[in-house]
């Protein structure tokens, strides 16, 4: 049995879910971004404890099919942008279609209708947030970051960074108080 959770965006969220499940004495096999693989069915009491525990920290359970698909799209994008260290051999659109077993146009329409942003712009926003993190907290230069983030060139990354943030990557790196957009907002 799987438990689908909305708004999971980080390792911290996964730790919080782990704590909630432990407090409710729930056995599980794995916690992934947006999903928990349970070993057994939940009692009504456990389900309600988990639901209220998640709600208290800004997360929630997903129950309808459309919301499940939207959360799978979102968590797949986050996984591709934040977890992948390898260069991608296919476009994000192909990867999403293959992973979720739906036509990309359908995925894009459902996502845009629900979130008010197209998948491509959502990916770009997250890629730029990841670039900001790498600029702030790593010793990687912009060329290395562009390679890691699957940009066709450092120039493409630099142009997109400036377009999205309004400043150059170099200026961002020099800022004392770097601003990051919470992932839950994107």
Write the layout of secondary structure elements.
Blueprint: E1 2-6, H1 11-23, E2 28-32, E3 35-38, H2 44-56, E4 60-61, H3 65-83, H4 92-100, H5 104-115, H6 119-137, H7 142-148, H8 154-165, H9 169-174
Antiparallel strand pairs: 1-3, 1-4, 2-3
The CATH class of the largest domain, by name, is Mainly Alpha
Main beta-sheet strand count, sense and barrel state: 4 strands, antiparallel
Name of the CATH architecture of the largest domain: Orthogonal Bundle
Q: Could you tell me the mean pLDDT?
A: 89
Number of domains: 2
User: What is the count of β-strands?
Assistant: 4
Describe the strand arrangement of the main beta sheet, using strand numbers: 2-3-1-4
First-residue to last-residue Cα separation: 29 Å
Quaternary organisation of the protein chains:
single chain
Which series of helices and strands comes N to C? EHEEHEHHHHHHH
Q: Low-confidence parts lasting 5 or more residues at pLDDT below 50?
A: none
Strand fraction band? 5-15%
Class by alpha and beta content? alpha+beta
Written account of the structure:
It is a single chain. The model has no long low-confidence stretch (mean pLDDT 89). The protein has a 4-stranded antiparallel beta sheet with strand order 2-3-1-4, covered by helices on one side. The chain is globular, with a radius of gyration of 18 Å. Strand 2 (28-32) and strand 3 (35-38) form a beta hairpin. Helix 3 (65-83) packs across helix 5 and helix 3 packs parallel to helix 6. It starts with a strand and ends in a 12-residue tail after the last helix. It contains 9 helices and 4 strands; from the N terminus they run βαββαβααααααα. The chain has 2 domains: 2-61, Alpha-Beta Plaits (2-Layer Sandwich); 72-186, Homeodomain-like (Arc Repressor Mutant, subunit A, Orthogonal Bundle), CATH 1.10.10. It is of the alpha+beta class and 186 residues long.
């Amino acid at each position: 049995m799987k438990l689908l959770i909305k708004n999971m965006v980080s390792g911290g969220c996964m730790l919080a879910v782990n704590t909630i499940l432990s407090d409710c004495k729930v056995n599980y096999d794995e916690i992934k971004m947006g999903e928990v693989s349970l070993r057994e069915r939940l009692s009504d009491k456990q389900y309600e404890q988990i639901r209220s525990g998640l709600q208290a920290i800004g997360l929630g359970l997903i129950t309808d099919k459309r919301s499940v698909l939207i959360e799978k799209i979102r968590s797949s994008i986050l996984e591709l942008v934040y977890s992948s260290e390898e260069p991608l051999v296919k476009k994000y659109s192909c990867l999403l279609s293959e992973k979720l077993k739906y036509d990309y146009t359908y995925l894009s329409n459902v996502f845009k209708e629900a979130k008010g942003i197209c998948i491509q712009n959502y990916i770009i926003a997250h890629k730029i947030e990841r670039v900001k993190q790498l600029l702030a907290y790593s010793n990687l230069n912009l060329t290395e970051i562009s390679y890691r983030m699957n940009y066709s060139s450092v120039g493409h990354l630099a142009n997109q960074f400036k377009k999205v943030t309004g400043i150059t990557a170099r200026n961002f790196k020099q800022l004392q108080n770097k601003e990051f957009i919470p992932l839950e907002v994107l």
